[in-house]
Automatic annotation (TrEMBL):
Main subcellular location of this protein, as a coarse class: membrane
Protein name per the record: L-gulonolactone oxidase
Keywords from the UniProt entry: Ascorbate biosynthesis, Endoplasmic reticulum, FAD, Flavoprotein, Membrane, Microsome, Oxidoreductase, Peroxisome, Transmembrane, Transmembrane helix
Family, per entry: Belongs to the oxygen-dependent FAD-linked oxidoreductase family.
Pfam families attached to this UniProt entry: ALO (PF04030), FAD_binding_4 (PF01565)
Pathway(s) it belongs to: Cofactor biosynthesis; L-ascorbate biosynthesis via UDP-alpha-D-glucuronate pathway; L-ascorbate from UDP-alpha-D-glucuronate: step 4/4
Transmembrane parts of this sequence: none
PROSITE patterns for the chain: FAD_PCMH (PS51387), OX2_COVAL_FAD (PS00862)
Topology of this chain in the membrane: Single-pass membrane protein
Essential cofactor(s): FAD
Origin species: Limulus polyphemus
Length: 511
C-alpha cells in the first residue's frame, strides 16, 4: 500500500511555478484522473503527512499499474518538480515489462523515482514515471554470507527497522536519512562517512535490471561486469533496477562521541581524526570558528538508557530550540541577513559546545535530524585537499561580507572505489556539503555562495554529488572521471533508444 510520506512528495495540490521555479509549467492536456483535485484539502504540509492515511483504502482501489494522469511530483525539499504524463506504481516484474513495452511503442521516456529525496531534477520526467513503492519485498536472506536480495523499491528505513533485525543484520554504512529507497541510494552513490567505508553503491553484490528492450539483465563482478560497474552508481540511466543483492553485516551498535573544537584544530590533526575512529565526521559553523566532531565505533557496550525526563529535556533542546526556534530566526534573517553570523554563533554555543556520548543501534546514530527544507550543494574532493578547500571557503566568506552562510558545512570521508562514475572512483575522498535553509519554504539567495563554493571545489579536483543540483557537463566530466566514456558507451549499448534519459541526463551527456 502506498504510504503517506510518498504521497506527500507526489501529490501537492499547492503546486505553482511561483512556489518552485523548476517545476514544469503546465499539466498534461488530458489530465482527467487528477488526484490532486480529489485530495486538495488534505495536501498541505504536515496536515497531509499526518492525515492522508484516511484515504489509503480509497487510493488502493486505483489501478496504479495502468498509469494515472495529473500527478505532480516534487522532491523532498520542494526545489524541483515535474508533471509526468503517466505515473505508474507496478506490483510485479511483468507489469514493469508491460510499461517498458508501452513506452517503447509510444516512443516515451521512463524515469524510475525512488523516495524523491534527491535535491535536483535527477528523478524528473514529463513522460512516464515509475515508482517501485509496491516492489519493496525481501526476497532472499543468506545468514552465512550476510547478503540479502531485495526488491529495489524497499526503503532503507524498512530495512533498518522491519526486515534486517529479524535476521540479526544491518547495513554497514548509511547516509543521514533512511527515508530513501535502496534503488535511489545506490543509483546516486549515497554515502555516509568512514575511512574504510565506501558509498552505499559499493555494497551492491548483484543487480537485476530491466532494459529498454524489456529484457532482464543480471550483473555482478562475475557476470556482465561492465554493466555492473556502470549500473551500481548508474543515475537510473541503465534501466529499471528491480532487485538488489546487498552485502550486510551482523547487526551492531555504535558508540558515538561528540565534542566541540575549532576549524584550525581539526584541519591540523585531520588524518589523526580520520584514522582514530571507524566513522568520523565534522561540521563547521560558517562565520565563526566553531566545529563539532563526531567519532563513532562499533561496540558491544549496552545501549545508553534515557529516562523520560532526559527525553523531554532533549526534545526541548533538539526540537523546540534546535528546530523551531532556529527556523524562526533563519526566517527573520531573510529580512535582516546580517543576523546570520550571530544566529550561527548563538546556536553553536547553545546546542553544540557540550561533550556527549551515546551508545545505540547503528542506524539510529548513522542517521540524524536534517531539519527543514533546504538548498544543498555537495562535491567530493581528494582527501588531501580538505584543509585548503575549507580555508579558501572561509577566506571567501570573510572577504564577501554581504553573503551569509547557514550552518552546517558538513565534512565526511569515504573510501575509494572502482565504480565508473562514483565520485569516490580511484581516490580516498572527502565530501563537503553546504546548506542554505528555506525557512517556512521561503527561498533564500544562495547563488553567489554556490558559485564560489563550486569554483573552490573545481580547482581542488572536485566531482559533484550526483543527487544534488550541479551544472557540470560532459566535457568536464570526461576530465573528472577516467571511465566517463566507458560509462556512456555501456549506457548507449544497454539503452540504444535513450528510453531512460531525462533532462538531467541530457545535460551530462553530449550526444
Ligand atoms: C534530508 C536529506 C538527507 C540526505 N543525506 C544524504 C547523505 O547523508 N549522503 C548522501 O550521499 N546523500 C544524501 N542525500 C541524498 C539522497 O541520499 C539521494 O538523493 C538518494 O538518491 C535519494 O534516494 P531516493 O529513493 O529518494 O531516490 P530518488 O531521488 O527518487 O531517485 C534518485 C535516482 O535514482 C534513480 N532510481 C531510483 N530507484 C531506481 C530503480 N529501482 N531503478 C533505476 N533507477 C532508480 C532515479 O531515477 C534517480 O535517478 C540526502 C537527501 C536529503 C533530502
Amino acid at each position: 500500500m502506498i504510504n503517506n510520506w510518498e504521497l506527500a512528495n507526489f501529490m501537492q495540490s499547492s503546486a505553482s511555478p511561483d512556489d518552485c521555479p523548476h517545476i514544469c509549467e503546465s499539466l498534461p492536456e488530458h489530465g482527467h484522473e487528477n488526484l490532486d483535485s480529489l485530495l486538495s484539502p488534505y495536501s498541505h504540509g504536515s496536515f497531509q503527512d499526518r492525515y492522508l492515511g484516511l484515504f489509503f483504502p480509497f487510493l488502493d482501489l486505483i489501478n496504479w499499474a495502468s498509469g494515472i494522469r495529473g500527478v505532480h511530483f516534487f522532491n523532498w525539499a520542494r526545489t524541483f518538480g515535474c508533471c509526468p504524463e503517466l505515473f505508474f506504481a507496478p506490483k510485479t516484474e511483468d507489469e514493469v515489462i508491460q510499461i517498458i513495452n508501452l513506452a517503447r511503442e509510444e516512443k516515451k521516456k521512463i524515469r524510475v523515482v525512488g523516495h524523491g529525496h534527491s535535491p535536483s531534477d535527477i528523478a524528473c520526467t514529463t513522460d512516464f514515471m515509475i515508482s517501485l513503492q509496491h516492489m519493496n519485498k525481501v526476497l532472499e536472506v543468506n545468514e552465512e554470507t550476510w547478503m540479502i536480495k531485495v526488491q529495489a523499491g524497499v526503503t532503507v528505513r524498512d530495512l533498518n527497522e522491519k526486515h534486517l533485525p529479524k535476521y540479526g543484520l544491518a547495513i554497514p554504512i548509511l547516509g543521514s536519512v533512511s527515508d530513501v529507497t535502496l534503488g535511489g541510494a545506490v543509483n546516486t552513490g549515497t554515502h555516509g562517512t568512514g575511512d574504510n567505508y565506501g558509498t552505499m553503491s559499493t555494497y551492491v553484490v548483484e543487480l537485476e535490471l530491466l532494459t529498454s528492450s524489456g529484457q532482464k539483465v543480471r550483473c555482478s563482478r562475475e557476470e556482465n561486469k561492465e554493466i555492473f560497474l556502470a549500473a551500481a552508481c548508474g543515475l537510473g540511466a541503465m534501466g529499471v533496477i528491480i532487485t538488489i543483492t546487498y552485502q550486510c553485516e551482523p547487526a551492531f551498535q555504535l558508540e558515538q562521541r561528540r565534542f566541540p573544537s575549532t576549524l584550525k584544530e581539526v584541519i591540523e590533526h585531520l588524518n589523526l581524526h580520520i584514522k582514530s575512529s571507524e566513522h568520523f565526521r565534522f561540521v563547521w559553523f560558517p562565520h565563526i570558528d566553531g566545529v563539532v566532531l563526531w567519532h563513532s565505533n562499533r561496540t558491544k557496550k549496552p545501549i545508553t538508557k534515557v529516562t523520560k525526563l532526559q527525553q523531554c529535556v532533549s526534545w526541548f533542546w533538539n526540537y523546540s530550540i534546535g528546530y523551531y526556534a532556529l527556523e524562526f530566526f533563519y526566517w527573520l534573517s531573510t529580512f535582516f541577513p546580517s543576523l546570520v553570523p550571530t544566529i550561527n554563533n548563538v546556536f553553536y554555543n547553545l546546542l553544540f559546545t557540550q561533550n556527549k556520548e551515546f551508545v545505540n543501534e547503528s542506524y539510529k546514530l548513522f542517521n540524524h535530524e536534517c531539519l527543514f527544507k533546504e538548498h544543498v550543494n555537495e562535491w567530493a574532493i581528494p582527501r588531501d585537499q580538505t584543509g585548503s578547500v575549507l580555508w579558501k571557503l572561509q577566506e571567501w566568506l570573510d572577504k564577501t561580507p554581504d553573503v551569509y552562510a547557514h550552518f552546517p558545512v558538513e565534512v565526511r570521508f569515504v573510501k575509494e572505489d572502482d565504480l565508473y562514475i562514483s565520485p569516490s572512483y580511484g581516490q580516498e575522498t572527502c565530501y563537503i556539503n553546504i546548506i542554505m535553509y528555506r525557512p517556512y519554504n521561503k527561498d533564500v539567495p544562495h547563488e553567489r555562495y554556490w558559485a564560489a563554493y563550486e569554483e573552490v571545489m573545481r580547482s581542488a579536483g572536485g566531482r559533484p554529488h550526483w543527487a544534488k543540483a550541479h551544472s557540470v557537463t560532459a566535457t568536464e566530466l570526461r576530465q573528472m572521471y577516467p571511465h566517463f566514456d566507458t560509462w556512456c558507451q555501456v549506457r548507449q549499448r544497454i539503452d540504444p533508444i535513450d528510453m531512460f534519459r531525462n533532462s538531467y541526463l541530457d545535460r551530462i551527456l553530449d550526444h
